[in-house]
């Protein structure tokens, strides 16, 4: 029997008809694909397979798609009809719910949160500069100047966690995404099989693939099938990898860097400086001692990620379809059949090639395409810049806070220039040290590299002394 073309239903369509022409490819004659709409994160998404004439109407609040619903609840009803997908979400079901949510928040809300934080920070700094007075005490000026950093960090995290709800209140739809538990029927075995068999159609409909990566991702047959099917058609530039361990590291590192900024602020207070100077030639040397535990914690976390990234690459290099895990072993033969059909359709093997040859070709496809795509997505250092931006945000804004009050602390041009120069040198050395921390941790995981990173952190000692010398010269 000749296969019929797929008909894609748009949001306003009320009928799905088999046999209408489309450029998306061909599937089995009994299957008609309808891609469903869902707002990113909270309000919903997705797609589903329907038999001709069927239409599922959402009848449930479209929220919390990752939570554990009662066994009799049909998550399929959380989806809606659309003609196009923005993002195909590929993830491992075993991950905690909160981690999945944060991963999607980092992907969908990061830009909005960054813009909101920048605007809030600029406004806070301007207000501080307008209301600060030159005759205020130095300690008061220092504390007041750091309002901007607090506002910036709080604004970023509020928008990161809540921006999708703000858009929903404004009746703005989010991106249309594919989530398997909503787009593929989980209780009706016939509809479930149709959805699985036509998974490659969903992938072709998607503009981008979002991989929520965990240590089990490269060991799962389902996820590797999704990834390897997407890459040849859409290319590595449309792949985004979100490592969940890096999200954990970011959550740990942000308060750590903020704690460093608080310590610096406290050690600049005159009442605190006096007892510290009895122990150290310069009170700022105490910062290095206090930062040692923080440096150890951050270094340990990113070393763990470096090792996990290497393990991920090793898992891909040694991938074999027979060794991969399947949540339900009864689905394995179905996935094998899908893989073999896909490899024949893409002419990776001849049309009459046996399944074994098609599966072996799939192995080579994974080993060839996946490493290139993962490297492109993660960047040459193995840590996407967005994570470094979030981690270093308190440090960067803290330096600008000091610069903002420089005219009030040192009204004369020369002293102010010396003060600003010292701060900029310190900021540059700190950021360079933190930036080079990433490649060191990514490419060298041995004990020697561990000690090198810790030692490199103490190169900030030079700018401390240089700042002091510059201020003494102008005095």
From TrEMBL:
SUPFAM superfamilies named in the record: Toll/Interleukin receptor TIR domain
Coiled coil location: none
Membrane-spanning parts: 112-130, 142-163, 239-265, 285-303, 387-410, 416-441, 453-473
Keywords assigned by UniProt, alphabetized: Membrane, Transmembrane, Transmembrane helix
Domain of life: Eukaryota
InterPro entries: Toll_tir_struct_dom_sf
Protein name: TIR domain-containing protein
């Amino acid at each position: 029997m000749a296969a019929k073309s797929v008909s894609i239903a748009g949001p306003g369509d009320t009928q799905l008809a088999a046999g209408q022409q489309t450029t998306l490819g061909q599937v089995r004659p009994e299957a008609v694909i309808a891609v469903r709409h869902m707002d990113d994160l909270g309000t919903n998404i997705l797609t589903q397979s329907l038999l001709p004439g069927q239409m599922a109407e959402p009848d449930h609040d479209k929220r919390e798609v990752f939570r554990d619903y009662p066994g009799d609840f049909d998550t399929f009803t959380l989806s809606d009809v659309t003609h196009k997908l923005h993002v195909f979400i590929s993830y491992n079901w075993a991950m905690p719910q909160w981690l999945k949510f944060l991963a999607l928040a980092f992907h969908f809300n990061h830009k909005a949160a960054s813009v909101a934080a920048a605007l809030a920070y600029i406004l806070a700094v301007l207000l501080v500069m307008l209301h600060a007075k030159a005759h205020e005490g130095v300690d008061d000026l220092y504390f007041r100047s750091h309002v901007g950093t607090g506002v910036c960090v709080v604004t970023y995290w509020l928008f990161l966690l809540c921006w999708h709800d703000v858009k929903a209140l404004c009746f703005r739809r989010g991106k249309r995404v594919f989530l398997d538990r909503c787009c593929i029927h989980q209780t009706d075995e016939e509809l479930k099989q149709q959805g699985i068999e036509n998974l490659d159609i969903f992938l072709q409909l998607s503009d981008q693939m979002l991989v929520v990566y965990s240590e089990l991702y490269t060991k799962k047959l389902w996820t590797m099938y999704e990834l390897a099917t997407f890459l040849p058609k859409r290319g590595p530039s449309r792949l985004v990898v979100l490592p969940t361990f890096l999200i954990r590291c970011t959550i740990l590192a942000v308060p750590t860097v903020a704690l460093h900024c608080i310590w610096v602020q406290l050690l600049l207070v005159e009442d605190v400086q006096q007892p510290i100077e009895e122990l150290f030639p310069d009170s700022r040397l105490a910062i290095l001692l206090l930062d040692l535990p923080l440096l150890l914690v951050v270094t340990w976390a990113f070393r763990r990620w470096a090792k996990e990234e290497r393990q991920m690459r090793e898992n891909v290099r040694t991938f074999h379809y027979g060794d991969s895990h399947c949540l339900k072993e009864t689905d394995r033969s179905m996935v094998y059949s899908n893989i073999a059909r896909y490899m024949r359709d893409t002419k990776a093997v001849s049309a009459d090639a046996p399944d074994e040859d098609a599966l072996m070709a799939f192995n080579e496809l994974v080993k060839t395409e996946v490493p290139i795509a993962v490297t492109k997505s993660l960047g040459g250092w193995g840590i996407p810049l967005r994570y470094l931006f979030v981690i270093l945000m308190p440090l960067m804004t803290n330096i600008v806070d000091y610069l903002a009050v420089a005219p009030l602390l040192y009204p004369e041009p020369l002293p102010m220039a010396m003060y600003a120069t010292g701060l900029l040198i310190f900021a540059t050395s700190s950021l360079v040290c933190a930036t080079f921390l990433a490649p060191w941790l990514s490419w060298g995981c041995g004990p020697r590299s561990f000690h090198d990173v810790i030692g490199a952190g103490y190169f900030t000692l030079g700018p401390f002394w240089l700042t002091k010398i510059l201020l003494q010269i102008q005095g």
